[in-house]
Amino acid sequence: xxxxxxxxxAIASPVDDAExxxxxxPHAGDHERLTILIEGWxxxxxxxxxELAIEVDELRRERFERDEPASPExxxxxxxxxxxxxxPARGEDxxxxxEAALAERARTARKETEALREDxx
Length: 121
Fold this sequence. Notes:
By secondary structure, the protein is mainly α. 68% of the residues lie in helices and 0% in strands.
């Protein structure tokens, strides 16, 4: 089952339950009916977010396993070899940078990627 189907099912089930409950309580006031309906939607959205979180965790786990080096490389001050990206993927700390610096770094990375694609193409 695809992620999209899992998310749709996670939303639909609580919403359907809320609609069934509304059908069983025809004499409920407007406030109570709205509360039941909203609660159903909130439960559905919470379930959808849980499905997305599970998928993100799985993707991170797969990426970590794929990117984990067989033997740890000693860290040197030398720039990365040609063809390897510079930046956070290489262990560079970006926590102290402001938005402008991060935007500049992103532009530089895009230019480097574009240049590498042109060289390969």
